[in-house]
Amino acid sequence: MSVLAPNVNLIFLLTDPPGPPVIKVFPGVFSLKLTWNSTSRDTNNIQILDYRIKVIDGTTLKQIFIYPAIIRKPFEIEKLVRNKTYVVEIQARNEVGYGETANISTRTLLAGKMINLLNKYVTSTRSYEVPLDLEYTSSNPRHVQIPI
Asked: What is the pLDDT of residue 50?
């Protein structure tokens, strides 16, 4: 005797935890903007539920941030130190659990002369003439109009 009604088909989809995501990083002075795609190994189109992101100090190798249950991308990691190396790890989670970890080593930017000068001279959204020493192209100081 069958418990199932006639003409009922059962489909079983076997799946594994997701593979490692493919990460792209866009460094800022005090932040890292991350975006990622699922690995090409995830061909069964199993829904990714969320991601776990860990940030590790590149010098001491100590974990400094963990962001569980991230569902949006891009994702920005803030409150970092400029000109410092970090390791970022991302894991995807599906109904089976967390998958393999992808990691990338990256460095925040060193604030340059342009950023320092803009902070010093610019106080509104109008255009200003800011004296810049363009030593990388010329030994003479120049005035450059920068629309902001």
From this structure: 93
Phi-psi region of 45 (alpha: psi -120 to 50; beta: other; left: phi over 0): left
**pTM, 2 dp:** 0.66
Among residues 33, 42, 44, 39, the alpha carbon closest in space to that of 11 is found at 44
Mention every residue, 6+ apart, whose C-beta is less than 8 A from residue 123: none
Token pair, residue 62, equals: 């100590």
CATH of 22-107, one of 2.60.40.10, 3.40.50.720, 3.20.20.70, 2.40.160.60: 2.60.40.10
Spatial distance between the Cα atoms of 65 and 70, rounded to a whole number of angstroms: 13
Q: If we measure between CA atoms, which residue out of 94, 21, 91 comes closest to residue 53?
A: 91
Give the sign of the dihedral formed by CA 122, CA 82, CA 69, CA 44: positive
